[in-house]
Design a protein that fits this description.
Layout: H1 2-28, H2 34-44, H3 51-65, H4 81-88, E1 91-95, E2 98-102, H5 107-118, H6 141-163, H7 170-181
Antiparallel strand pairs: 1-2
Helix pairs in contact: 3-4
């Protein structure tokens, strides 16, 4: 019974981990934040949005989230959700004496911001999909190998280890047989 409970607990931990990884992957799929996606759809329909208008949209979205109904204050004076979201999602970039903030993680928004801080003109786009001047190009082959090869192998071996029949100690069996003959 203890082995059954252990297997079920291991399965529960694995299930929670798998759901967490899947949820994280789905959330990280779209580039940028909601406002970036909205601006992209507006640009596709032919309307142009300036950086100031985009920042105003982000502020308006944060004000909607700052509703008092969403604030949590059981034992103390906690800040509203909108204020926390403003603080948590903001990244401050500094170059010399110049600073700028952004909530986006998209290279299409971050790189122009970095180039403006460095007072360098933004390079023109090329025909390929990669954004020009992207400084953090990484090879994900090792992660792909781990998630598609190593991790399933570890999971399979763990499953096999929990499903294998128990080993019997032959010396104990022989003692019982000799004891039964007396």
């Amino acid at each position: 019974m203890l082995a059954y409970i252990g297997r079920r607990a291991l399965l529960a931990v694995f299930t929670v981990w798998a759901i967490s990884v899947l949820s994280f992957a789905i959330i990280q799929l779209p580039p940028g934040d909601y406002v970036t996606s909205y601006i992209a759809s507006m640009s596709a329909s032919g309307s142009a949005v300036s950086e100031g208008e985009a920042q105003a949209m982000r502020e308006q979205l944060m004000e909607i989230l700052a509703d008092d109904d969403l604030s949590f204050q059981p034992g103390g004076a906690n800040r509203p959700l909108g204020e926390l979201c403003r603080e948590l999602g903001e990244v401050e970039y500094a170059y010399g004496a110049r600073t700028a903030t952004s909530r986006s993680t998209s290279p299409g928004e971050i790189l122009p911001l970095l180039y403006s801080l460095a007072q360098v003109p933004v390079p023109t786009a090329t025909t390929d999909d990669a954004y020009p001047g992207y400084p953090c190009v990484a090879n994900a082959q090792a992660a792909l190998l781990w998630f598609c090869g190593g991790l399933p192998l570890v999971i399979g071996l763990t499953w096999w280890w929990t499903r294998r029949p128990p080993r019997l100690d032959r010396s104990i069996l022989m003692q019982e047989v000799t004891h039964a003959d007396r």
